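User: I'm curious whether this sequence folds into something compact or stays loose and floppy. Could you predict its structure so I can see for myself?
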Amino acid sequence: MMLQEQKLRDWIARLAENEDYAAHPLMTEFRALADEHLKLMRQLTKIAKISDRMQTDTRQMAQALHAASQTDPLTELPNRRQMVDRLEAELCRLGRNGGGSGSFALIMLDIDHFKEVNDAFGHAAGDHVLVEAAGLFRRNLRGQDLCARWGGEEFLILLPETDQLQAEAVAEKLRGLIAHHSITHQGRSIAITLSLGVAAYRPGRTADDCIQAADDALYIAKRAGRNRWAAAA
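Assistant: Here's the prediction. I'll summarize afterward.
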């Protein structure tokens, strides 16, 4: 736009240097039209800049809304929606490979007796426990793993390219880390343990089937006394 404006100004200057054009009766009107045209060009430039800013703001807002729709606001972990999307994508990947290349496993875990934490220390302390636990999970998983807050005190972990034995080792690692992790809230120590259910993918299973298998294994661990993991039947 600035280049076009300069070209117009140069053209008017060249006309003014020509005596025939400079003395023409319409030259004054032409100058006024040129000035008005330049003013409109500058206004269009401002409008274009405003439009660009609005488009950028709209994109950023859309990205923020999308992130918020897939993130748990308390723990800042992915939420159930993002986990389901990722799990469906993992199943599609296996389907494209004919089910013969790679696998994955799920770990459904639950903080034992979480209601007792809320009752004894208050809900603020309970929230603090969830945030502490989420941070520990995040720090002790691989970059390609996904840990989501499934709901309440439940978390679901997706472990791509992982078989049953490898997933069981991860479950035991997390169980031990939490059992020995010191959580302090307002000067009070809070001890927690985990129950975990481990289920590796089996061909033909849907996303719901995989989640249900991990959930069933979790309840096996709970019935067996908690602070332990169990494998899917």
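Summary: The beta strands are 104-111, 146-151, 154-160, 183-185, 188-190, 194-200, 228-231. The first helix runs from residue 2 to 17.
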